[in-house]
Structure to design on (651 residues):
């Protein structure tokens, strides 16, 4: 197995169980082969029965999102006082010298003293209390032919004077602070400011640290939890992808590199998603969102709806930007994995690169436009008729009947002059349900893609390997929860569909019902005769819902348990060749044309434009007339008697 030369790609085939690099070919050849892929959607894939079980010890060591392998979590994420690194004992073994010194530093901060390194050699280290007459000391040595260290001698009693209290705690370095607070940062969505780090260190250890130390400590914790720095994360990615396919056989991974072994594209489709797509409606929503890490890029997503109207993730990709080349590359991978059903529908926004790529890769598929993205474009073009436009446009787009469409479209054209020509130029079949050549079902927008982007809003700040790991954890969690929910369903249809049928019961009370059995009955409405469940598609049934999530997304072992081939472990993937911008990076996206972002409302003063944390408005102790209180009910101000001037006010 050879590693790729510059400009080549790593391609993984779903069958048989592959190694990390199965075929090495040029990127141009890969696009041609992707175009020539089978355009027939196969029958449902059999679930993967031969997945090797993951040892319990490995699962316990794999802390979600951390990659650190620590199995114990202390109070509020602060080490010390019974934590993992807080206790020093003779014959205790540490995984590295850095872990040993971290434990010593945390002990010094907890017991309010300072230490100095008396001797330090590659094979042993001796640490003493900073006071010359104190007997406290720690001696440890490195075990033979390993990276582990063992404490050989520990004198824990202090003999220094009781009044010896060093003011400065020099052990509170940035990497020690990072070890103390990293448990609070396991959740990527948590807001943990340097000021919070300073407060926690003061409250827990009585240590005053500067803002810069707190900021660097938080960055050290991020690097630890996120599997290293952004550069180290790219080097770790090939090994991670190998373990991903090893624990999830049948998954498709495509990693493409450019000159100098620099990262260019990444595509991931889990085996469970490949299996479940056969039981979902053939309507795929695609979108891309910007990454916020050091090397930027975009995250491509392809999702669809399951039987219960929930998001079903199909594939993920990472590229440099939204351009023709990247979208074409991603959709070629989607086509090679999921095929091209003649009834396939792709829904997206009006991005020009998406339109060009869909025409190139899926020429026979119907490409629909998101209804709300088009509405935002209309609001920008016809600013003076926003209220009338939105009211009539949504009804026109959602109607099923052609006769109703002509009536509604005429009303829309009369209310907003010029909108008829604009919408006809876009294409009526691309944004209306009544003119669609293929069945869009009720999927008229890309809301499922936007919702997934919102779920990953904090994850998109992570380095590449941590980003992929968080996506896997999210999909693993969703599949388990929905598999459990589908297994407990006892109705004919999914729970969401049954609730909708229940909501329409009132309208059906006037119809005649003739029961055949518990689940089958005839509904007579005038001259029409219905069997209710016969009108529902199989894609909404309980069986399809359960089959969608039957396959499992397995966890990945801790990094210390990875077994990768020599070619992969020696291959050093470099970050993409992009110019990194100095200064604080933008985290809030720019709104699209016509998009109205919600304005925050302060819960303290009830005004808009800020939140409670940044509120600086004074709060009146007594309500005023402007606040809605009647002035007649307020006590009138009486002149103060001289004898009362020095009286104590009553609260």
């Amino acid at each position: 197995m050879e590693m790729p030369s510059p400009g080549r790609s790593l391609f993984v085939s779903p069958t048989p169980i592959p190694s990390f690099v199965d075929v090495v070919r040029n990127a141009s050849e890969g696009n041609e082969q992707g175009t020539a892929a089978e355009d027939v959607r196969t029958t449902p894939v059999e679930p993967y029965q031969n997945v090797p079980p993951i040892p319990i010890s490995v699962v316990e060591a794999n802390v979600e999102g951390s990659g650190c392998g620590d199995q114990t979590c202390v109070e509020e994420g602060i080490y010390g006082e019974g934590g993992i690194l807080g206790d020093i004992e003779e014959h205790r073994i540490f995984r590295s010298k850095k872990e040993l010194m971290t434990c010593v530093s945390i002990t010094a901060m907890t017991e309010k003293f300072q230490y100095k390194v008396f001797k330090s050699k590659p094979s042993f280290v001796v640490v003493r209390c900073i006071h010359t007459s104190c007997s406290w000391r720690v001696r440890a040595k490195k075990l033979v032919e390993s990276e582990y260290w063992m404490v050989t001698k520990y004198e824990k009693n202090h003999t220094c004077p009781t009044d010896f209290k060093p003011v400065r705690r020099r052990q509170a370095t940035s990497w020690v602070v990072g070890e103390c607070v990293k448990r609070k940062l396991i959740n990527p969505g948590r807001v943990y400011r340097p000021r919070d780090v300073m407060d926690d260190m003061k409250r827990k250890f009585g240590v005053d640290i500067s803002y810069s130390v707190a900021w660097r400590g938080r960055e050290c914790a991020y690097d630890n939890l996120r599997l290293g720095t952004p550069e180290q994360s790219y080097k770790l990615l090939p090994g991670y992808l190998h373990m991903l396919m090893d624990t999830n056989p049948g998954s498709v991974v495509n990693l493409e590199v450019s000159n100098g072994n620099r990262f260019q594209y990444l595509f991931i489709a889990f085996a469970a998603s490949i299996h479940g797509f056969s039981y979902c409606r053939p309507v795929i929503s695609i979108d891309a969102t910007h990454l916020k890490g050091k090397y930027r890029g975009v995250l491509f997503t392809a999702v669809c709806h399951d039987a219960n109207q929930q998001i079903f993730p199909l594939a993920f990709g990472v590229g440099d930007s939204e351009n023709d080349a990247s979208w074409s590359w991603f959709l070629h991978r989607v086509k090679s994995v999921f095929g091209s059903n003649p009834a396939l529908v792709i829904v997206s926004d009006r991005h020009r690169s998406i339109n060009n790529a869909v025409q190139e890769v899926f020429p026979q598929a119907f490409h629909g436009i998101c209804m709300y993205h088009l509405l935002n474009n209309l609001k920008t073009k016809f600013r003076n008729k926003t209220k009338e436009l939105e009211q009539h446009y949504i009804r026109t787009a959602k109607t099923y009947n052609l006769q109703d469409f002509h009536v509604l479209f005429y009303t829309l054209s009369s209310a907003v002059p010029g909108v008829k020509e604009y919408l006809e130029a876009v294409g009526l079949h691309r944004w209306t349900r009544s003119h669609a050549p293929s069945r869009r079902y009720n999927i008229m927008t890309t809301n499922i893609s936007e919702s997934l982007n919102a779920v990953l809003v904090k994850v998109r700040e992570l380095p590449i390997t941590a980003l992929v790991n968080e996506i896997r954890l999210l999909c693993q969690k969703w599949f388990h929860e929905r598999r459990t929910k589908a297994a407990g369903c006892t109705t004919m249809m999914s729970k969401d569909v049954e609730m909708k049928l229940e909501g329409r019961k009132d309208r059906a009370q006037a119809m005649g019902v003739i029961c055949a059995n518990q689940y089958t009955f005839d509904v007579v409405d005038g001259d029409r005769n219905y069997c209710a469940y016969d009108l529902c598609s199989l894609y909404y049934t309980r069986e399809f819902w359960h089959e969608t999530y039957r396959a499992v997304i397995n966890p990945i072992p801790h990094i210390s348990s990875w077994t990768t081939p020599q070619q992969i472990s020696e291959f050093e993937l470099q970050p993409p060749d992009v110019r990194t911008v100095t200064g604080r990076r933008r985290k809030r996206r720019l709104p699209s044309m016509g998009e109205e972002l919600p304005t925050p409302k302060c819960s303290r003063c009830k005004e808009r434009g800020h939140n409670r944390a940044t509120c600086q408005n004074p709060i009146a102790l007594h309500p005023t007339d402007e606040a809605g209180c009647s002035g007649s009910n307020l006590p009138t101000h009486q002149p103060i008697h001289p004898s009362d001037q020095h009286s104590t006010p009553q609260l």
